[in-house]
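Record filed below.
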Amino acid sequence: MNKVLIVSRQHKVYRELLAQAALPDLEVTDDPHHANIILADPPRIADQLDCYPQLQWLQSTFAGVDALTTEQQRRDYQLTNVRGYFGQLISEYVLGFVIDRFRHISHYQQLNQAKQWQPQPYRALSKLTMVILGTGSIGSHLARSCRALGFKVVGVNRHGQMPDPAFHRCYRDQELEQALAQADVVVSTLPATTATDDILNATSLSHCQGALLFNVGRGNAVCEQGLLTAIDSGHIAHAYLDVFKQEPLPAEHPFWENEHITITPHIAAESFPEQVMTIFSHNYRRFHQQQPLDYVVDFEQGY
């Protein structure tokens, strides 16, 4: 009999969904010493892993698992994450702000309140180039969504190969600055690894020419002082930030006071329990049948 322990802010919902799923040879436990499977929000379980001597498999309820992949933590189990669901939500977030910006929607709302008739010039989305850092499932979904609206979509990844025909071209990480020089919109979907630490900094962002910047991946990718420098110099016209090096973002942080930064509280792509359970149920059946799991995280790469 396999035993799963749930560590999540939505513990009650997951417990109900597990009961409905009626997976074979699986029962829920609250005893860490008996659990060989964990279903967990990574930040909530990260400092407790050593309390699970029987652990074989941990299913993350998030896409990002950087809280579980530091060198100091144990790696003697299989870690799987959530994939395939967040691309749609990230696309909605990015495109919502992009359309608002380029079609002046918020500005017209202000003009409405002032009863002013002032048409504004605008650019069609089909004239824009979007540079997406990270071309995994989220980045590729965003590329397809934007390509359908006419964007030229450029990707940046480790190998420079195109994982999806929606990309016009992909550059290697070492060619980042060449890609950024083309950008009207820059979107980071990067995971948190040592290779992505402060990859968007004053030097790299200086190659942008008034671009919009989105960070919907992990907060480590943006050098905070470098971003402020890029905004002051006009290389970044506006930044839309959903993730940060410290969350919640402290009230005294300078980002709050900058009119060229829009802050959202890590809500670009929520984990919906029903979707997580679809992945968990699929993977549990594979685990039960001793088959390879899907969406396994490489601890060395961090994703």
In short: The domain at 86-263 is CATH 3.40.50.720 (Rossmann fold). The longest strand covers residues 2-7. The mean pLDDT is 98.
